[in-house]
From TrEMBL:
<keyword id="KW-0812">Transmembrane</keyword>
<keyword id="KW-0472">Membrane</keyword>
<dbReference type="InterPro" id="IPR013099">
    <property type="entry name" value="K_chnl_dom"/>
</dbReference>
<dbReference type="Pfam" id="PF07885">
    <property type="entry name" value="Ion_trans_2"/>
</dbReference>
<feature type="transmembrane region" description="Helical">
    <location>
        <begin position="85"/>
        <end position="102"/>
    </location>
</feature>
<protein>
    <submittedName>
        <fullName>Metal transporter</fullName>
    </submittedName>
</protein>
<feature type="domain" description="Potassium channel">
    <location>
        <begin position="64"/>
        <end position="133"/>
    </location>
</feature>
<feature type="transmembrane region" description="Helical">
    <location>
        <begin position="47"/>
        <end position="73"/>
    </location>
</feature>
<keyword id="KW-1133">Transmembrane helix</keyword>
<feature type="transmembrane region" description="Helical">
    <location>
        <begin position="108"/>
        <end position="129"/>
    </location>
</feature>
Length: 145
């Protein structure tokens, strides 16, 4: 049990340590291009913000899934990388089909992966909405001037 909690905590921490600096870099990019993003034409730039932010969010989720995949595979929880990846994706997204189950001795680790996925999806959704809100709000304000 303690090995599961320790390993799961390390993967959770690694996930945070990947996401936090990347969020900072995305914010720095928004600040760098702020003037350009709020200038006319607004439509194509809003599409660029949506696409860019969504791709960044997908990249962060992919990193999280792979961190768990490698953890499960290295610990021998699953026989193949494909099975580890499939379980990681289903668990991280909290989909939980139930067709591939975590071995009994590693089940706490599976729950930690689901919690990590839920937190990552929530955080990334909030950041995506905030990015869109920020750009759109400033675009509308620049139009009124």
């Amino acid at each position: 049990m303690f090995l599961q909690i320790f390993a799961g905590s390390l993967v959770l921490l690694a996930s945070i340590l990947v996401m936090a600096p990347s969020a900072w870099l995305v914010e720095a990019a928004f600040l760098r291009f702020h003037g350009w993003l709020i200038s006319e034409p607004h439509g194509p730039k809003l599409i660029l913000v949506v696409a860019g932010t969504a791709l960044w969010a997908l990249a962060m989720l992919t990193v999280g899934v792979w961190l768990w995949t490698l953890t499960f595979w290295q610990l021998g929880a699953f026989a193949t990388m494909e099975e580890s990846l499939y379980f990681s994706m289903v668990t991280f997204t909290t989909l939980g089909y139930g067709d591939v189950l975590m071995p009994h001795r590693w089940r706490i680790l599976g729950a930690m992966a689901a919690a990590n996925g839920l937190l990552n999806f929530g955080l990334l959704t909030a950041l995506l909405v905030e990015a869109l809100r920020h750009v759109r709000m400033h675009q509308v304000a620049s139009r009124r001037r």
